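Because discrete structure vocabularies remain unfamiliar, we turn briefly to a single example record, giving the amino acid sequence and backbone structure tokens:
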Amino acid sequence: MAGARTKRLRKAREAEREVPLRNLELSEEVGETAHAVVGTAGQNPRKGIRTYPPGSRSGCR
């Protein structure tokens, strides 16, 4: 029975890690989207204005 308990504990630990890692990934995507919006709006004069091809709107759904 120790093997089954160990598997349950391991699975529980993996589940606990999943949510923070998903949050980090989402934060990264939000940051990239914000960076793109700032770039296309020309809000940062040091970096200029960028344009993106029509198919690159993956973060804007």
About this structure: The radius of gyration is 20 Å. The chain is about 65% helix and 0% strand. The chain has one domain: 2-56.
